[in-house]
Amino acid sequence: MKSRVRPIVAQMHGYVPGEQPRDRDVVKLNTNENPYPPAPGVARAIVAAASDDLRLYPDPGGSLLRETAARVYGVTPDEILVGNGSDDLLSMLMRAFVGPGDVVVYPEPTYSLYESLVTIQEGRVLSVPFPPDFSFPPALQAAEGRLMFVCNPNSPSGTFTPLEVIADLAARFEGVVVVDEAYVDFAAATALSLLAEHPNLVVLRTFSKSFSLAGMRIGLMFGHRDLLAEISKVKDSYNVGRLALVAGVAALEDYAWMERNVACIVATRDRLQSALAKRGYDVLPSTANFVLARRPGEDQAPVQQRLRDSGVLVRHFPTPRLADALRITVGTDPEIDQLLAAL
Ligand SMILES: Cc1ncc(COP(=O)(O)O)c(C=O)c1O
Predict the structure, then answer these.
(1) Residue 86 Cα, ligand 1 centroid: separation in angstroms?
(2) Which residues line ligand 1 at a C-beta cut-off of 6 Å?
(3) Whose CA is nearest to atom 12 of ligand 1?
(4) In a mutational test of the pocket of ligand 1, which residue from 91, 181, 183, 208 has the highest number of ligand atoms less than 8 Å from its CB?
């Protein structure tokens, strides 16, 4: 039987299962991974945890990871939930709050998983287009619904919604406002500081980007303890494995490693933005680890294909709003040199 949902994997990451080239054969700038390795303590922690204890289920609450994250981010452990990547946390939010006909609100274009998850729940999307400069659409400030998503920095634009706007939204919106901060370590400000004042606000983080751990699948949800207690009712019991839990703790314990990688990526991002502008692209100012580069009115699908033929993967979205753009992940300096040469 045909499902109600378009293929999520292809839609989100721009490849068809089975067609993904091997990572080592290509310069992979299409899924916003980190080009630098995780902190050395992560592999050590995983090796130490790869013991006979693997026969035992993991801690269902991920207590040690929550305690460590609570210390790092200045909250209490009961204000954190752990997920199998932030996609797992997004899915929990949908299962907890959205049923048939319920409205979910967000500006678009944004992270395409939101739409897929609403469809699975048979909810209704109320989306408003971002204006050309990707500032937050004023029409959304009066919207009503069960959930509102603010991807901040936004993907695929890389642009940032100021915290004052988010605070205003949280004060007015009757449902839960979810700030998806997958890329926030590459930006200047986090909505974590708003949580104390807004019990209907939830902030999502992932270890897949700044912490270089996309392969481990670790995400954190921050929010009011009563709200998180409700959400945890729809959590799979053992949603995060033993190795991922210890990897997350080790990554947080070497926070400076992550910050150094972020600093390198931000420097390369600046260079990439100027180089693309010199080649005639319109580039939105990015606050993430990727850049959206546009040639107004010129479909970039053939450019993406030619780059792919020369071994460089970038992301193209075949939608009316984004067809003339490429989303390029910030890689290492040599990788970006290879991209620029191929362009
Ligand atoms: C905006 C956004 N949120 C969430 C995710 C999912 O991250 P994770 O790897 O933690 O599931 C991504 C991944 O690309 C993303 O771009």
Answers:
(1) 6
(2) 32, 85-87, 111, 151, 155, 180, 182, 206, 208, 214, 219
(3) 182
(4) 208
CA distances from 172 to 144, 167, 168, 196 (A): 9, 9, 6, 16
- Joined tokens for residue 123: 């909810």
Q: Find the 87 Cα to ligand 1 centroid distance in Å.
A: 6
Query: Which whole-number Å values give the CA distances from 203 to 12, 170, 176, 220, in the listed order?
Result: 21, 12, 11, 8
* Ligand 1: nearest atom to the Cα of 208: 9
Phi and psi angles of residue 205, each rounded to the nearest 5 degrees, phi first: -125, 155
CATH of domain 40-254: 3.40.640.10
Burial string for 20-33 (b: 16+ CB within 10 Å, else e) reads beeeeebbbbbbbb
Assess if CATH 3.90.1150.10 describes domain 8-37+256-342: yes
Cβ-contact 79, 222 below 8 angstroms:
yes
The string of pLDDT tens digits covering residues 141-181 is 899 999 999 999 999 999 999 999 999 999 999 999 999 99
At residue 312, φ and ψ (nearest 5 deg) are: -120, 120
Hey, where are the domains in the chain?
8-37+256-342, 40-254
- The values of phi and psi at residue 128, to 5°, are -125, 130
Question: The pTM is what?
Answer: 0.94
12 — phi, psi (to 5°)?
-80, -40
Distance 48 CA to ligand 1 centre (A): 28
For ligand 1, the distance from its centroid to the CA atom of residue 189, given in whole angstroms, is 18
Q: Which amino acid is at 41?
A: G
Pocket test for ligand 1, best of 33, 87, 106 (most atoms within 8 A of CB): 87
Residue 231: strand, helix, or coil: helix
**pLDDT tens for residues 265-284?**
999 999 999 999 999 999 99
- Encode 125-157: b = buried (16+ Cβ within 10 Å), e = exposed: ebbbebeeebebbeebeebebbbbbbbbbbbbb
Which atom belonging to ligand 1 lies closest to the Cα atom of 206?
A: 10
